[in-house]
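Continuing the batch. This is chain 6 of the set; chains 1 through 5 are on the previous pages. Same settings as before, nothing changed between runs. Recording input and output for traceability.
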Amino acid sequence: MFLRIGVFYVLTWLFLMLLGGIQEATGILPPEIGLAQWGPGFAALVTVVLFRKDEIKITFISKDTPPQRYLWTALLPAGVGFLVYLLSTILQIQSTATSGVYTQMILVLIWTPLGALGEEIGWRGYLHKKLDTRLRGLFSAILVGFLWMPIHITFLSQGLLLLIFLAIWFISLSIVLFALVHDTEFSVLAATIFHMAINFINLLIIDVMYEPMFWVINGSVWAFVAFVFVLFNREIFLGLKKA
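Output for chain 6:
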């Protein structure tokens, strides 16, 4: 298992550098459009081909997924994200640098679903599905979140406090996503809707995305949400029955 995970993760970084390099060298897209988001997706597709004897299939749409599940995967991250936005506003967290993303808003809105799809093919479609056959839900969710965080390299030079809560955020998102999609064969569509909702709500707070105190709030709120999911879903996360 760990050979497959290692190959997938190395390929993810190779595709990240390749796609990012192509974008920077050609200038075909503005920097707000992260072509490198498709790194995990391409890595997953290549890994599936390399280890086709594993018979791991990426499930893009699960026929057994109830329609209301898709609604939940959109409303939950949007609701929690809006709560974080309100808390940040109430606490008057202000940006020390103005983002230029709004000048490319139309392109960002068009790219957001595509970028979310590229990541979720890799993280949920392949990696989490592969880990789920060997590890308990909580451990696999933590591992996926831990591996997911470093590819967002623009945050890696923003200080230790920000990085700690950034990691907490990604691990928390991974836990919540596991609860929402584990019984849908890790549906890429469901995970993409969740990821897309996160990306859209983040446009509200794009100007404070590099502020450590914002990440303290964001990470703490999502950690609480993840804790609640684990508490009420102990059978899928820890193999324990509810009391």
